Amino acid sequence: MTLSPYLQEVAKRRTFAIISHPDAGKTTITEKVLLFGQAIQTAGTVKGRGSSQHAKSDWMEMEKQRGISITTSVMQFPYHDCLVNLLDTPGHEDFSEDTYRTLTAVDCCLMVIDAAKGVEDRTRKLMEVTRLRDTPILTFMNKLDRDIRDPMELLDEVENELKIGCAPITWPIGCGKLFKGVYHLYKDETYLYQTGKGHTIQEVRIVKGLNNPDLDAAVGEDLAQQLRDELELVQGASNEFDEELFLAGEITPVFFGTALGNFGVDHMLDGLVAWAPAPMPRQTDTRTVEASEEKFTGLSLKFRPIWTRNTATVWRLCAWFPASMRKV
């Protein structure tokens, strides 16, 4: 059966929110995602009030001054053949209501974890909210350009504390000053990290094959052998990625990288558009709303003041398929 142009457009949509503990790099990774989506030309970061460059998703003056996200920012950009809706939510507990309401409107979530600290309190609370709807979760282990905890310990902690299986998609090669890149377990490719490229898209440097001598030359013999030893353990002890379990909220694909260094974000984004669900029917108190319904149905997320002294309402569109748009 051929879908109508309208339903084809619906199938291209990916709507997700980013959740994390404060200062895990959530708004910074938002900037990098927008950079890869060509929504901006140069990525900003969340910095102190003395900096003139701020994250594009931090639009309020108070956000710029405090270096944190206070309200949910809604952004849209194309990526590959999809149209991605990204909701950057506040991480600080003072603004919980805005975050909780946003999580009811998304089809999946990206969980950002500071790899130096592991699972933190705010992340636990937000994961409890996503559990109410079995929301699919992708995980990004951030800050590999700093010294981090053992990657296997991080996976174990996520599984034990958040009660979700981990399926590593990429695996780090070193960390901190010795961070050399990541190995993609399902493509058998190593992606090499370059420093000083945090505000632009890095030129992709790939070494194919785990036993390729070029890998030893690129990262050093010691790190190359350490990678092979770790992968032998990972492939024997960790979960394989299963798309059905991911969509059921039972397993999370895990990516490693550094948002500040703009590395690994594109690997995560590739996984998101490939595996995250398109808009699904929405369950209400009385019935299920299908995307193909003719009447307009939406979920009101928030009200935002605008310069005309009125307010703009941010909606999650659930259904609107008038007869004039239908293909007979």
From TrEMBL:
Keyword Acyltransferase attributed: no
GO MF annotations in UniProt: GTP binding; GTPase activity; translation release factor activity, codon nonspecific
Gene Ontology, cellular component aspect: cytosol
Domain (Tr-type G) ranges: 11-280
Pfam families: GTP_EFTU (PF00009)
Keywords recorded for this protein, A-Z: Cytoplasm, GTP-binding, Nucleotide-binding
Function, in words: Increases the formation of ribosomal termination complexes and stimulates activities of RF-1 and RF-2. It binds guanine nucleotides and has strong preference for UGA stop codons. It may interact directly with the ribosome. The stimulation of RF-1 and RF-2 is significantly reduced by GTP and GDP, but not by GMP.
Family membership noted in the UniProt record: Belongs to the TRAFAC class translation factor GTPase superfamily. Classic translation factor GTPase family. PrfC subfamily.
Full protein name: Peptide chain release factor 3
Organism: Salmonella diarizonae
Source organism phylogeny: Bacteria, Pseudomonadati, Pseudomonadota, Gammaproteobacteria, Enterobacterales
Gene: prfC_2
